[in-house]
Amino acid sequence: MAPRGGTGDPRTSSHGRGAARGHQLRGGAGRRGLPHGAADRRAPDGGRHWYGERAHGNLELAPGGRCPRPRRAGGARVRIAAAWAALFVAGCRAPTIPAAARYPAGTPLEARYVRVEGSRIRYVDVGRGTPVIFIHGFAASIYAWRKNLVPVESAGFRVLAFDNRGFGFSDKPAHGYSNADYARLLVAFMDSLGLPDAVLVGHSMGGAIAAEVALAYPKRVRGLVLIDASGFGRRSWLLLRLAAWPVVGPLISGLRGRWITARALRSAYADPRKVPSTDVDQYYAPVAEPDFGRALRGVLREFRFAALSGRVSAIETPTLVLWGDHDPWIPPSVGMALAAELPRVAFVLVQRAGHVPQEEVPDEVNRLVIAFLRQGLARVPGDLALARERETP
Fold it and tell me: Whole-prediction pTM value?
């Protein structure tokens, strides 16, 4: 929980679009908390971050704190979408790893199952303290959090992660994949474990689901961490448009190949060399499950990947937004626009990371998440505890 401190209520001016560049996010005159000019601090690896309350509809960046202009991602998105499409039309299926070798085998974690909303859900649950639930993204599983769960648990928190309906080794029915369905499933999962509330950490599609829960069930969410989250903006991936076609959709979801899983996974990294073959094996195993194609059709038919556009300003939950500075799937400009709409937010551009910073630069992500959990839950950025944590020698 956040320590007691000054209000740090920042004042912003009502400049037009783009006018925030080169300006400082100021603390109120005479208030304790963030010192004048402290809104722009460099992370140990050189990353930029800024913090702010919503005021007059604008957030301002600190002097020199402009985020780098995102690379033009149109062509990249088309290539990535084509890779994902190929994932489902690739032809042959390679053998998968045996069940005994599937994550979390060989770790301190133990996979369990619970029936929630009619679906058998695979999950892990370890530790004591404030519960923190990790929600993976599209076509991923608990494995996406393999580098984060134990460090966060070791910091004194109860960590939970689960294979969402349709993914990993949870049930894969034909229906039940709308945004509201996923939000209701998560709350029912919490009910099944006796959790009145929790901090939600969501990546990509999981970020969209976490934000949906914060909107529909605000009392169940103590804090929110959104990592390269989908759900915002109007552009849809080529794969999603193709899947809507009556003939192409079933074909897309019918066939899978391991080599395309590898290609898609490596395309999500800023440095593809960081993806070992063991990661490809773990990601491919659920994709090769017999019912994955049926579940995929349901997700692509029912889930709205831009459902949160224009709605997130209603989220009052303290929120940490993390974004890879080289995300080729959802560019940093989307994360900045998202953060600008959130009333209580801290935004960090994670350096040398693509779409999956929690996997590519886990130490930095873990440090930021743990600092947020320890200091930023109660009043972010009311006392800007996370900013002060950055200033600590």
Answer: 0.75
